[in-house]
Amino acid sequence: LFNVGQAFRLGRYPIHWHLMGDVKFKSYVRGCGIHQSYNRAVTIHNTHNLLVERNVIYNIMGGAFFIEDGIETGNILQYNLAVFVKQSTSLLNDDVTPAAFWVTNPNNTIRHNAAAGGTHFGFWYRMHDNPDGPSYNPNICQKRVPLGQFFNNTVHSQGWFGLWIFQEYFPMRSGSCSYSTPAPAVFRRLTSWNNEKGAEWVNVGAVQFSEFLMVNNEKAGVEAKRIIQQHVSGWGLDGGAAVVNSTMVGHVDELGLGSNYCTARGVILPLDDGMSVINTKFVNFDRSSCAAIGVAEIVGTCIARFSGIQYYQSPNKAWFRWEHEVALVDTDG
């Protein structure tokens, strides 16, 4: 499909699954090319168990692979390539800061996809309190729904972040609005490079980044803003927030960004207690502009625990703005 999608007109998308209900894995969007769209690419609206795979989209205005109201579950988006997803001021407010993959309910599968070049985000998990639009249901709280799957995705050259979890996500075991036992949401195996930030969460509970590879991102490999515990879950992987088995690379000179370039901070710690950084490597944080560890910039203090940490050619192990700004607890020596 070429030269498609009508700007200024709601619902005029190249491919639009509109209020289809459960399609029971019998329907799919497979092997399509969508080039030069003025209004998104594939929109999934109150449709469940749809397969979207092996599609290539290029030069798309607004959120590209777009899960709409937040009621949608069980959809599988895999092996898709999104190239140059860009801002639009002729659609909705959401499309002013678009994502190649816009996810409003975490109970979907996002795996083996690539987002290459864009004005804002590669992957954005944006959950409201309840589904909105014609799907409004006060008994569904998607901020508390367990994660379906986020696995083996790649993102680079985004104007803002590779992966953004904004504004809140507090995954609970049953996913009900009242349940309070955490079910850790493990975002696994993201490769993210040449973005402003590789990945960031804002207000979360038991959210964990595992097997992340962050290279040559400008401001941070991973930034954590807040950890807001909805349940007394303590530290660690059973119910806490963490970065695990990951690698943060300050600079790779072969990419030609100059001798002074370096990711400012490998991991930026949140403003609250409760974060663990486990079995993570920091590589090439050896220039004056960068350090492996930093702290989110707002007046306050926090505590973070570390184990299995390794530094390679990284004499700048951490950076503090004042004495006692943060307590870093090395749990294994």
UniProtKB/TrEMBL annotation:
<dbReference type="Pfam" id="PF24606">
    <property type="entry name" value="CEMIP_beta-hel"/>
</dbReference>
<dbReference type="InterPro" id="IPR011050">
    <property type="entry name" value="Pectin_lyase_fold/virulence"/>
</dbReference>
<feature type="domain" description="CEMIP beta-helix">
    <location>
        <begin position="1"/>
        <end position="162"/>
    </location>
</feature>
<dbReference type="InterPro" id="IPR055401">
    <property type="entry name" value="CEMIP_beta-hel_dom"/>
</dbReference>
<protein>
    <recommendedName>
        <fullName>CEMIP beta-helix domain-containing protein</fullName>
    </recommendedName>
</protein>
<keyword id="KW-0732">Signal</keyword>
<dbReference type="InterPro" id="IPR052387">
    <property type="entry name" value="Fibrocystin"/>
</dbReference>
